[in-house]
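Instructor's aside before we start: the two examples that follow are unrelated to each other. I chose them only because their records fit on one page, so don't look for a connection. First example below.
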Amino acid sequence: MINEMIDLSEKVADKRKKDPSLIERMESAAQGQSPRFLLISPINRSSQDLELLDMEIGDAFHATRVPSVALPPPTKSPILFAGPASYNHGFAEKRGVILTFEFDEPLEIIRESIENLAKHPDLRDLPVIALRVDYDRGEARLTPHGKGRDYAGENWVLSRIQKPSHLDENTLVLICSDSRVKPPLTPAGLPMAIQTLGGFVPPYFSEDDESALLNAFFERWLRLDESTRHILIIGHGAFKTEGPPCGAAKASLEPSNVTSGLLRSVIQQIDDEASAFEESQPASPEDRVVALASAIRHNLLSYPAVRRYIENAHDDLIGSLFMNTVTNVLSLE
């Protein structure tokens, strides 16, 4: 499957090169990113949300929510939510936060998610657009709330709603929050995605943090049926051709330079865990990304649900690929 995904990424890149508007976006991406929205998606709909909202390269920075449960407060979700939200704070053109939910998720989950989102100090001044989505029909409706709204922005978002492509429920990618990288197509469609700084996931720790929520997700997903599952760690940077580095990986080379306390703690954790797989100081952010992929794999293996699945004769569950930040072309390294 990995080779097929590499081929698909090259075909998608070739198609983009024939679209003048996408060429312009790729040229802008080479200079940096300035996304307009922080998009917080459930793991199983993250890739589809980009298509649902008709968003392209550079439009949305990502954070992640475990499906069917409320977004935790920042202190309980530093990797999936708080870190990406703090990183997003540094972008000049941000217009708001978009939270997506399945159309049948209870209203209590939506309200609690909005309440917890508002506890993040870097999001307090941003309007929040909460959408309940029917992905099969390509329809969405707003959930009213009192935490700050931008009616013009809401109408703009609603005007772009479209039916997303088919979901590949057997493939999960771990990929950076960076607005310039999109979860890659698989032969079966759009993968599920955990989008965090550097694609990092924490080790399994306890029953009272985001790792417990992740383990519960893995429990459900890995026992859903007899289909073969795949988890792909996708690092990004100047791989295969020139391009900008992964911002989180670059920052992790000098964590003390990060001024935000919330963000610095996440970047420091990335540095600490990637360093365990490096024999010397990395020469480039790309070297750090390669080490980080090993650290992420190590952390995944700490989850009881993942470990049990692998022990049950599925030792090929986890793989790694690397993506060019601008072209989104995949390679083995």
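Example two begins here.
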Amino acid sequence: MSALLQPAASIAADPMPDLIVNSDLLQHQWVVRDELLPATFCSVVEGGITPGVRRILRFSVQTPNVGNADINLGDPNAHVAANDGLYEFATCHNHFHFRHYTIDQLIDPATGRVWKTAKRGFCMIDTNPAPPSVGGNPPGPRVYKTCGRVGIAGNQGISVGWADEYIFLLGGQYFVLDGGDGQPVVPPGLYKIRVTVNPPFTAATGEACPHQDPQGFCHQLPESRYDNNVGEAFVMIDDHPGRGGIGPLAGTPHASDNAGSEPLDGD
């Protein structure tokens, strides 16, 4: 029987990546605390944050590729030369950041008010094998390891069975809760962290729309499905967390303990 005459279910679809957010990790890796954010931190510079001791909510994000094909972006220098809109150069970080990779939101379930994170860009590489609990294929060799800089080749992407993880100590992996970034103060209470990977967006005039979902929204990356790209976790914000903090990561080191330098993604 020819392929054209076979039932549709028997014809294998083209291999495609499939990104998800590891909600279990998100739920178990957060802390609310008072933390020194020096003026030299890139996240302070890029996020317009007033330096000093700020009340923040730090959290980790992991985005496994549970599909059956790699996300293979390669060298950001090539994308910048092609002006395809996928990357921008982060001056403070001194490497290329992928645009529209995740949207991280802190949401008040009672009012729907949303706060944005301090993180402004992403370097997409294989950082961790995807945990078996998220499903998908087992990991093979680690392929994508380097962010790249101007004139220095990088190799960005996420292999099948691997994940890109942004641990809570990295630059920008936090929400400012005390208004120090110009957003409203976050009152104590129960909140939701919502992370959307490869989020939908509407292309501005002259902006590329690399891939389109069935609803007509743009996405930077191709996927077999776009309806499983959201992860959520509930967090409790206290009005007196102190330096030690509250939450699953209470008592963990501060970014400023690292000889005054901020850990950056891809370092």
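Confidence is low (pLDDT under 50) at residues 1-12.
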